[in-house]
Amino acid sequence: MKRYVVLFLVAVTSLAARANAEVEYCPALVHVAPVAVATPVPGATASPTTDFGLRLQAESARTVSGVVAMHAPDGWYQVSIPPTKLLPVVQTWRSSFSTYTRNVYESSPVYVRFAKPITVASAFMLQATTSGENVFGWDKRGTVPCDAEPDALDAPTAKPQPVPNSTDGLIHPNHEVEHAPPIGTPMIVSQRLSLQMPVCNVPFASARATKVAVPVYPPSLARDGDLTRREALIAVAISASGIVDDAWVFESSGRRAMDVSALQAAAASTYAPGRAFCQNVPGIYTFHADFYPN
Predict the structure, then answer these.
(1) E strand or H helix at 110, and its extent?
(2) pLDDT at residue number 254
(3) What dotted CATH number matches 208-291?
(4) Rounded-to-integer distance, Cα 247 and Cα 286, Å
(5) Distance CA 274, CA 154 (A)
(6) Where are the alpha helices (DSSP H) in the chain?
(7) Tens digits of per-residue pLDDT, 81-129?
(8) Phi-psi map region of 130: left, alpha, beta (phi>0 left; psi -120 to 50 alpha)
(9) Residue 135 phi, psi dihedral angles, 5° rounding
(10) Mean pLDDT of successive 10-residue stretches along the chain, which has 294 residues
């Protein structure tokens, strides 16, 4: 598969504490949720249903069309997405020490119908086309094929993985379930998709850090008497060869010097790329930097 990566040439170790991505590996990420009339019980297993809502997400404004692959217990399906506009959304996240917000671009739900009740394990863009995208230059590339997500046989995701805490992660907007669409809303009918499953020892795996550089507690803060324990989450864009393409602040520590130190540690660490369908694939890894005063 031909692979596209959109990035600006930057020296990661000299970056200021940016909160915006300069790399995208696909014109859109996908989040899928069942359509239900009642709010589900937290932690409950999703029941099979015929109707699902798909939301597309990206780092800048755009209109996206394309094909989404969806994985169900009985195999793969594909869904053709008509031109869908992504608009600004403010997300609220919770981490071990704080609650913080991020600005992203997200579509309203696109509704999909299956011939029989199923559960969907995951979804990812097979290919996508954009219009009105003025930051990453996707419009010039026409129809872009996208790699599968490393978790394409597990739970869907359109975000970096949270730090290991059951209460951490995205808390608003919550799209674990979509409300039933208004009467007359078009429903896209899913089609069967033939995806060959290659055989190998590790067909799917998330990106991981192989050698973690420890962030330095900024001496200037210690001298100023700031001895508060803090954390920063750094989103690290890792290429299919394991190279750091970019890194930016996903959650700020609240101190610029700490954010810069966390970025430098993330860039100095080494990584193994994710894998999907027995191939290395690019993706986003979350580097967790804890700052403990001496």
Answers:
(1) strand 110-118
(2) 86
(3) 3.30.2420.10
(4) 9
(5) 14
(6) 219-223, 256-268
(7) 999 999 999 888 776 667 777 788 999 999 999 999 998 888 899 999 9
(8) beta
(9) -110, -50
(10) 44 54 89 72 66 93 96 92 95 73 89 92 93 95 91 47 49 73 90 86 90 90 74 92 92 89 94 93 92 75
Q: Which residue type sits at 292? A: Y
DSSP conformational letter for 205: B
Q: Using the 8-state DSSP alphabet, how is residue 220 labeled? A: H
- In the chain, where are the structural domains located? 6-193, 208-291
* Residue recorded with tokens 């540690």: 265
With CA atoms as reference, report the closest residue to 34 among 107, 120, 114: 120
Residues 194, 76: contact at Cβ < 8 Å? yes
Q: What share of the chain is helix, strand, coil (3-state, %, to 5)?
A: 10, 45, 45
Instruction: Give the amino acid at 139.
Output: D
277/179 Cα distance (integer angstroms):
33
Asked if the bond preceding 173 is cis, omega within 30° of 0, the reply is yes
CA–CA separation, 54 and 57 (whole Å): 10
| Both structure tokens of 13 | 């170790």
**pLDDT of amino acid 103:** 84
Question: Contact 188/113 with Cβ under 8 angstroms?
Answer: yes
